[in-house]
Request: fold
Amino acid sequence: MKQLSFFLLLLFTACGKTEHTDIDCLGESNSVKFEYAQDPANARKFDYTISYTGDIVITSITFDYGDGKTESLSVLKGTHTYTQPGSYIVKATLTLQNSTGVICAITPAKNVTIY
Reply:
């Protein structure tokens, strides 16, 4: 009986061990900082910057400037000049992929107002 119990314990312990391959998107989103600055010479021009301190590879970055314009970049900075005054929600989607191919998308957003 002891041998059977030991075998079952060993079997369930071994089966319960799996390699962690998921990405914690919520946790990774804490590694993202999304900032913007208005150009002092042009009130309708904004520079957007993303800082990422996580360990997972960024495979793509897409800025949605909120006015119908989007831009896919390979850098963590985007610049956009608005043609019309208004309030816009600007989003930056970072696509992350770990070494096992698991993909996660993080989309921080900012509100900007153009006068």
In short: The longest strand covers residues 86-97. Residues 2-20 have pLDDT under 50 and may be disordered.
